[in-house]
Every structure is written in structure tokens, then in C-alpha cells.
Amino acid sequence: MAKLQIILASTRPGRVGLPVARWIEEAARAQGSFEEVELVDLAEVGLPFLDEPHHPRLRTYVHQHTKDWSAKVAEADAFVFVMPEYNYGYSAPLKNALDYLHHEWAYKPVGLVSYGGVAAGTRAAQMIKQVVTTLKMTPLPEAVAIPFVHQFIDEDGNVSPNDVMLSSAKAMFDELKRVSEALCPLRETPQPA
């Protein structure tokens, strides 16, 4: 059973990311490319700033929050990061969440849903590609970039996507499934520590 995790990267109060992440989750479920879709909210995960004494490559985690995070990430076959752009970069909670682990991310594709103002979070999306490739993840060119994100959120706090957002999401989910299947043999081969 292929599992997609949608990771919501914004943790600050009043964030716009929650309705965006809920829309992406709903779109992923409706498309049906993955048998299981889970929304993982970094605000709920609540990882402290990296506090493990050993390098993540060793997998000698001492804190329960790290062991829980490791198990959660290991469950997934593919990811979507729903991410804002802060000062031309991605959020610190997302970087922290990535840095906690190493092997658990490897050989899994990641789609990026970025949002913001005129640049639609695309500068942050470009920046994170360097990090995820170092973790042996495969960032996809197919992505969803939402400019002036507030215009797509209605008074009830729901996203009303336009045709470009819908077609971009479909293309991203299709490619996530294809790449996830292609990388499956690599995920099944144990990695050296």
C-alpha cells in the first residue's frame, strides 16, 4: 500500500498553510494515486530544536519525540511539503524536521506546494531542493505554486483553487506515484549506517 504524507511546514499562529494543506490532502484523496494519505502538521508534531546527541545517520535516537518522528516518516512512500516562503527561504520548523532524520527520507519523492505573495513561495521551493537531494530524496519539477494565497481562501477558511492549481496538483500527484514506484526497490534495500 503506497502512502503519501503531506507535511505542513508552517507552525505560526494564524497561518495560511492549514487550509492549503487541507485542500491538498482532499485533492490527493480525490485523485486516488495513493491508497493512504495522511496530513502531518509540524505544529502538532512539536519537535524541539534539534536535540539529539548523535548524528541522525547512526539512528541512535535517545529522545522519544525523535523515535516517534522517525517511525512516522519511515511509514511514507512519498511526501508533499506544504510550505510558506519566509524571507526568500523555507520555514525553520521544516528544516529542523528534516535534520532530525537521515535514512527515513531516502529514496522517496517529494512534491512541493509553496505559497506566498507575488513569488508564490517559489524561492523557498528552489532553496529546499538542495537539502532534500542531500537526504537522497527526489524533488519533482511538478509542483503547485500559489501566488497571493489569500485570494484563494474563502470566508470559511477553505481554499477555492483555480484551474492552474488543480491541474498542477494532479500532475504532481501522478508524478509522485510514478517516481515512488520507481524508487521502491531502493527503499527496500537496507542502507549502510
Sheet with the most strands, sense and barrel status: 6 strands, parallel
Q: Counting H and I runs of at least 4 residues, what is the number of helices? A: 6
Q: H/E order of the elements?
A: EHEHHEHEHEEH
Broad CATH class: Alpha Beta
Which structural category fits the helices and strands? alpha/beta
Domain count: 1
Describe the structure.
The protein is an alpha/beta fold and 193 residues long. The chain has one domain (3-188): Flavodoxin domain (Rossmann fold, 3-Layer(aba) Sandwich). The chain is 40% helix and 16% strand. The chain has 6 helices and 6 strands, in the order E-H-E-H-H-E-H-E-H-E-E-H. The longest helix is centred in the C-terminal third of the chain and has 26 residues, at 163-188. The two termini are 26 Å apart. The model has no long low-confidence stretch (mean pLDDT 96).
Topology at a glance:
Layout: E1 3-8, H1 17-31, E2 36-41, H2 42-45, H3 64-74, E3 78-84, H4 92-99, E4 109-115, H5 122-134, E5 138-139, E6 144-146, H6 163-188
Parallel strand pairs: 1-2, 1-3, 3-4, 4-5, 4-6
Helix pairs in contact: 1-6
